[in-house]
């Protein structure tokens, strides 16, 4: 492969780096060539796994923990693997960056000023931002001429109205950046694009899409544009998640402070010890909880279903109605049990799930007579990043 015909996409988190290589066709169509993951960063057993487009394993091996102690080091490992397997570098690298702050409404080509700006948003995404930026910095040091593009999870939500963008706090705080940014925007953007193609009858419709993965949120979209989201200032707000609580009385944070917990203790607690994991005392993996007979696991599932159902339907107020409901991401795409559990809270609205369609994962999972159509759409954040990257470095 030569450098003019591939785009590399990197999605770096606290414990893993996922990377994908896309080929760029003559008509600018993007086709996946390989996908890899270095997981277990900072643990005693980091592993690198890479598969080609057919799912055949290209590499599967343990990495010396000293070489993947943090995301920076892990990116060096990924870079070395890529340069050993590709001839030349890709035409550009696209990165998922969670927070674009109030000013960045669209993907941007990265330069020093952009990196500096993005670093100021660390505290708005403590779990993500530094890890998202680490590979950008490593690549900039090693290959300063390789174009890099940052794609933001917040950007899709910059179409929100002034009301949707606010908390009920003094205006001065809003001006300082205390805003409802919203997240999972790359996933919602893909879902909106996919709906155009696979369910064109929903064009222009009022859609509630729920991204139910490790992080969980829902988004109200009209005509493919975000008008509201359950997530706000940070990725803590809204619906319950794997290890984050979602909605929480801020008085609880004050109460924890009074008990002597420091800022870092509380931050760790809110990002790592709450949600499904905190409620169940078992873990954050939906599969494990669904398989468990433990009463606390049932409780966690009931809580999750109720609050997700409530949050999704509440978004109807932003649009004065809901034409269709979409489930996506790990839980949304793969758990018929949780989808059914959530939809039980909507029976009073005439929304009905067809058990067989639900077991087959749709795409439509509601009955013919359901008042609102319910669908499963598989998300693909990486493809959206690759598209944006191509559009920025090689405009049509
Ligand atoms: P992320 O990419 O944010 O890490 P994912 O979108 O992969 O997260 O979602 C992870 C969640 O999806 C986990 O809670 C996992 O248990 C759940 N999940 C994945 N597959 C299934 C399945 N077959 N049944 C139920 N839950 C699943």
From TrEMBL:
Binding note for cofactor: Mg(2+). Can also accept Mn(2+).
Binding site for Mg(2+): 11, 381
One of the record's GO molecular function terms: magnesium ion binding
KW Transferase (keyword) present: yes
Binding site for substrate: 96
Record-linked SUPFAM superfamilies: Actin-like ATPase domain
This protein's name: Acetate kinase
């Amino acid at each position: 492969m030569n450098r003019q015909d591939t785009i590399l996409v990197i999605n770096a988190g606290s414990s893993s780096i996922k990377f994908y290589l896309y080929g760029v066709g003559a008509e600018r169509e993007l086709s996946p060539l390989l996908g890899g993951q270095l997981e277990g960063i900072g643990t005693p057993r980091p592993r690198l796994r890479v598969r080609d487009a057919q799912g055949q394993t290209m590499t599967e091996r343990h990495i010396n923990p000293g070489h993947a102690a943090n995301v920076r080091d892990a990116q060096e490992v990924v870079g070395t693997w890529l340069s050993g397997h590709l001839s030349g570098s890709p035409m550009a690298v696209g990165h998922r960056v969670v927070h674009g702050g109030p000013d960045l409404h669209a993907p941007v080509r990265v330069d020093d000023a952009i990196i500096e700006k993005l670093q100021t948003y660390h505290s708005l995404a403590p779990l993500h931002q530094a890890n998202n930026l680490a590979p950008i910095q490593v690549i900039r040091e090693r290959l300063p001429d390789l174009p890099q593009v940052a794609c933001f999870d917040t950007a899709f939500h910059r179409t929100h109205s002034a009301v949707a963008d606010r908390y009920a706090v003094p205006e001065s705080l809003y001006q300082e950046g205390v805003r409802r940014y919203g997240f999972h925007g790359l996933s919602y953007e893909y879902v909106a694009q996919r709906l155009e193609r696979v369910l064109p009858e929903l064009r222009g419709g009022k859609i509630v899409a729920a991204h139910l993965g490790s992080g969980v949120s829902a988004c109200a979209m009209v005509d493919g544009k975000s008008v509201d989201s359950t997530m706000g200032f940070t990725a803590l707000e809204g619906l319950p998640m794997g290890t984050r609580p979602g909605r929480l009385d801020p008085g609880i944070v004050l109460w924890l402070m009074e008990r002597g917990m420091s800022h870092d203790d509380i931050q760790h607690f809110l990002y790592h010890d709450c949600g499904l994991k905190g409620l169940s005392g078992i873990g954050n993996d939906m599969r494990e909880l669904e398989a468990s007979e433990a009463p606390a696991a049932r409780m966690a599932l009931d809580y999750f279903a109720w609050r997700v159902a409530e949050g999704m339907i509440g978004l109807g107020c932003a649009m004065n109605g809901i034409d269709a409901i979409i489930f996506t991401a790990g839980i949304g795409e793969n758990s018929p049990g949780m989808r059914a559990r959530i939809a039980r809270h909507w029976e009073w609205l005439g929304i009905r799930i067809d058990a067989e369609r639900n077991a087959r994962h749709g795409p439509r999972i509601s009955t013919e007579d359901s008042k609102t159509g319910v669908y499963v759409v598989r998300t693909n954040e990486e493809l959206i990043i690759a598209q944006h990257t191509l559009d920025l470095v090689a405009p049509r």
